Structures are given as structure tokens and as C-alpha cells.
Amino acid sequence: MIPRLLAPFLKRDAGLYPVVTLTGPRQSGKTTLAKAAFPDHAYVTLEEPDTRAFAREDPRGFLARHAGPVVVDEAQRVPDLLSYLQTEVDRNPAPGRFVLTGSQNLLLMEKVSQTLAGRSAILHLLPFSRAELERQAQADPGAPPELFANRESRLDPWTAIHTGFYPPVHDRGIPAQVWLQDYLSTYVERDVRVLLNVGDLETFERFVKLCAGRIGQLLNASSLASDAGVSVDTARRWLSVLKTSFLVFLLPPHHRNFNKRVIRSPKLYFHDTGLACLLLGIRTVEQLSSHSSRGALFENHVVSEVAKAYWNHRRTPPLYFWRDQTGHEVDLLIEEGGALFPVEIKSGSTVAGDMFGSLAWWTALAAGEAGEPTLLYGGVDSYTRAGVAVRPWFAV
Question: Which segments of the chain have a pLDDT < 70?
Fold first, then answer.
């Protein structure tokens, strides 16, 4: 088992709360982590039909039989069980009694927020980070000088982006394009039918592919809906499900109006670039290296790795971007310690002078609020140039 950076925080929170909820996309390693972190807990999965029927038809009897400490896997399968769980932990609030795991979806999180508020820690487990895959330690993320600590990597960036980071691809040696296609089909057939009751799955699949074609772009729900042939309300509802099931995430624009003409729309990214490559029809690493989405996928990889660094340390990522209506843009802003640290992301393996323009412009605009600027690029060297910390793609 590849050690997960979230493990110590999961164990810590189990000593603080009666319930710990571990969520994330399907196949991100939640069950494996829960079993490894709590080897003395009993284990029960609501994936089994008879167990699920027991929990649904007699929740009190189910909880009496599994009074803890216990790992309850696939908790989203019987969301009403959480209402009875509230009563149980109010009666006996001993920490670490219940560890719930489940795919992040509307049903599970709605029930957790409604019935277990203040009683449950909520942690998010995403697919492997690059640091986890290479078994590297990662410090608690802070300002970029600490976050982008230079280290070595044995990975090729484009192979990593094309393969993605879902555990089964790396643990079982299944070809990425084979496993990811099966994963996508299972997600659409199973989760989407449950959450949305979508009749036309082909239209939904086309919608997801259109999202992949908009990686790193400003989200325009009207344009997306028009291209998919659905209403704007439907597009927004589908996007909400993609977010809550941890397929995509939105990077918000920073609220600071330095020149009063900033863009208000978020940017769209995928949590896993391997899945995005599949949706874009990129079958090989060679195709990726010359694909029109090459730069967008590289940017997606960097942004998602920065986000994982925060989630893996039990922190909400303080990440934004900045763009004004004249086209000035900073790919990533990290808000730490009262300062804003601008980060430019370039896929090229050679640093050119024109890569520093946006950082210089924004740093001058933000003045005293700007932290040390960073350029993350597709090369391997680390140095400082024109007051900018130049760091390789694997620095996070």
C-alpha cells in the first residue's frame, strides 16, 4: 500500500469526534485507507444487498449490532441511517466510534451536514498526489517558498498527466486508458442515474466531454448548455453533480478589485488529468505532447496538485486566479498569511523572458499585498530570475 498523506489527520480526528466521514471520488482509496488506519475497527459495507437492506429496514437494529468502533463503507447507499446515527452518538459521544466512507455525493453530504453537524469530522481523499506516488514527504503547505520545495522526480510530466493518479492504475498495473474508460462508464451508469435520473446518458457523456474541452477556461454555463443541447438550468445541475462527485472543481476568481474590472466567472478543472485526456480522445503520450489542450492539461495538473497538497493536510485550499477585462491574468493566486502569492504556469521546458510579463504586471498592481512570485514550468531546474522563483513542474 502506498502511504497516504491524509492518514495522520484521519487518525487524529478519530480521537476528537465520535464520527469521521471520509469522502472522495470512487476508487480514490477510501476503503483501503480506512482499513489501514483503523485495523482494530470492525468493518461493514453497505454495498452488500443484504447488509444494505438490514440498515434501511431496521436502522436501530443495525446500529445496535454495529455499535462501534466500526468502519461503515459506502455510507451514501443508506443516507437515512445517519439520522439514527445522530441519536446514537448523542447518547454515547466517545471519539472514533464510527468511520464513514463514501463517494462524495449530494445525498451523503446533505445528510452529514443536516444530522451530524458538530459530531463528524469531514475529510476528502483524492487520487494519489505526485508526492504520494513517488513516496515523498510533503510539508504542511504554506506560502510558495515552503509549498514549492524543490525535490527530484523520476516521472515524465506528460506520462504522469496522461496516466492520471487513480490508485488502481498504479496499484494493479491496469492500462490507464482501459481502466479510466471502465471507470467513466461505471460512474455514468451508476452515480448519474441515482443522482440525476438522467434518461439520455449519451447527452450527459457529451456534456462531460465538453467540460474537458474547457479546462482552464472561464466557465460559461450558457455556452456549455448550448453546445450540449440542454437548458442552462440542466447544465448547472449537471455541473453541480460533477463537482460533488469530485470529477471537476472550479477555481474562483479572487475578490480583490485592484483595478475594478476583474472577471467574476470561475475557471473549470478536472481533479484527474488522466480522465480528462480520455474524454478529449488523447490515447497516447505522443498525442498529448502535440495536442491543442497540452498547455491547459499541464496547468490543470499543477493546479490540482497544489489543491491536493492542502486537502491532504486537512486544509481547504486558499486558491484563486486573477484576470481583468483587458486580458491581464495570473494563473494561480495563493492567499497565505495576509499576502497573495502569484503563480504563473507554463508547460514549456525552457524558460523564456516573456513568461514573466504577467507576474511583473500583477505584482506592481498589487503592490504591498503581493507575495513572492513563482513560475512553475515543464523543466527541471530551480533558480531565481528577475525576482521570480523559477521552479520545476514537480516542485509541488
Answer: 104-113, 189, 193-195, 197-199, 257-262
Count Cβ atoms within 10 A of the Cβ of residue 159 and give its class: 0-12 exposed, 13-18 middle, 19 or more buried: exposed
Do 175 and 88 fall into the same domain? no
Structurally, the chain folds into a number of domains equal to: 2
Asked if the structure places residue 337 within a domain, the reply is yes
* Whether 92 and 143 share a structural domain: no
Q: Which domain holds residue 40?
A: 7-124
- In eight-state DSSP terms, residue 132 is H
Q: For residue range 182-239, list pLDDT tens digits in order.
A: 998 887 767 776 667 666 778 888 999 999 999 999 999 999 999 999 999 999 989 9
Rounded to two decimals, the pTM is 0.94
Q: Please provide the distance, in angstroms rounded to a whole number, between the alpha carbons at the two ends of the chain.
A: 22
Beta strand ranges found along the chain (DSSP E): 19-24, 42-45, 70-73, 98-103, 120-124, 248-251, 267-270, 319-323, 329-336, 339-346, 374-377, 383-385, 388-392
Last residue of a domain, one of 124, 145, 172: 124
CB-count burial class (<10 Å; 0-12, 13-18, 19+) for 172: exposed
Burial bucket for residue 121 (CB in 10 Å: 0-12, 13-18, 19+): buried
Confirm if 69 and 40 have CB atoms less than 8 A apart: yes
User: Looking at the structure, do residues 263 and 384 belong to the same domain, yes or no?
Assistant: yes
